[in-house]
UniProtKB/TrEMBL annotation:
Residues noted as binding a divalent metal cation in the record, renumbered to the chain: 170, 215, 270
Binding-site residues for substrate, renumbered to this chain: 135-136, 278, 287, 296
Note, other: The active site is located at the dimer interface.
Keyword NAD: yes
Superkingdom as given in the UniProt entry: Bacteria
GO molecular function: 4-hydroxythreonine-4-phosphate dehydrogenase activity
Protein name: 4-hydroxythreonine-4-phosphate dehydrogenase
EC id: 1.1.1.262
Enzyme superclass (EC): oxidoreductase
Catalytic activities: 4-(phosphooxy)-L-threonine + NAD(+) = 3-amino-2-oxopropyl phosphate + CO2 + NADH
Keyword Zinc: yes
Organism field: Pseudohoeflea coraliihabitans
Leader peptide range in chain numbering: none
Amino acid sequence: MALALSMGDPAGIGPDIAIGAWLQRREADIAAFFVIGDPAVLRDRAALLDVELPLIEIEAAAAADAHFAAALPVLPVRCARPARPGQPNTDNASATIEAIRQAVRLTLTGDADGVVTAPIAKAVLYDAGFLFPGHTEFLAALAAEHLRRTVRPVMLLVNSQLKVAPVTIHIPLKEVTGQLTTEAIVETGQIIARELKARFGIAAPRLAVSGLNPHAGESGALGDEDGEIVLPAVRQLRALGVQAIGPLPADTMFHPEARASYDAAVCMYHDQALIPAKTLGFHDGVNATLGLPFIRTSPDHGTAFSLAGSGDARPDSLIAALRLAGQMAAAQSGRRVAGDA
Ligand SMILES: NC(=O)C1=CN([C@@H]2O[C@H](COP(=O)(O)OP(=O)(O)OC[C@H]3O[C@@H](n4cnc5c(N)ncnc54)[C@H](O)[C@@H]3O)[C@@H](O)[C@H]2O)C=CC1
Ligand SMILES: NCC(=O)COP(=O)(O)O
């Protein structure tokens, strides 16, 4: 079986990095994957990049494995309009979304090993009526439909230096305090601890939980949430058998000695988690969604419209995402795939 790679915004660097990852498939030792997207966009982008791209249109995911060594397999989802690099078009939003849907469907039916997503431009999809803040929340909704229960997705950023997850995800900063609850922190911590064991082979995961306010509230002088919301969550996690410490001041929990004391950091909001993640490992960074009934990884960067078709978009983060998805699939099934140590 192969991994399903949704094409992302066709005007962004998704096509460039998909081509780049396939061209490096041997030296990068990545598991087989197929793109769900528009073959014409990939052909045009390869021509613009001046690279030779053998591409094969497939009718079913099952055909991907057999072709992957010789050609980039593509399960067609065609764009409504020609994709112009760097010029996103809301008319193509439905193809972007359909590619994600198909990747999830094929993974849930067992026809693909996992979902890997190339970047979407959120504002472009919002303009086309997309109701979810990002992939993470959309994938959770698809998972909830499948499982017939609510699903809490956890956005785990992974690079060689750090694993870190925000509890609240894509919400305005002014709404963080209202949405941050002890229950949300506990659920997030439990999901991380469970999946670090199951998917990352960490037998006894240690979590470091950040505070919300400067200096984790400075004993309440700089905010009540650390004592009233975060501390009870850390205590509950410990009572549930999860090794957790905190609330820690977020500004001093990411230096090398601090990072050595935990396996994953749990932060209270998006930038508190993503700034250290992207600063410490932008090009080897992967965004993995935990808490889903399927594997999902993604490069940690966005659509980088100004780089589309330029030849300057590095495929490294996508390669890291494909490798991690391959390793997670192997851990899930107990078999070895490319990318294992
Ligand atoms: N998983 C996803 O679908 C994600 C989507 N986005 C979306 O991407 C759009 C653009 O977001 P930005 O904040 O500008 O972030 P961005 O990651 O697209 O770009 C940030 C900077 O990094 C550079 N960069 C990004 N990827 C690169 C690569 N592979 N090689 C070399 N340089 C690279 C860009 O040129 C830019 O200077 C937004 O609409 C955002 O919502 C952002 C992050 C993740
Ligand atoms: N900042 C990370 C990001 O935007 C990724 O979001 P998602 O589309 O993977 O939910």
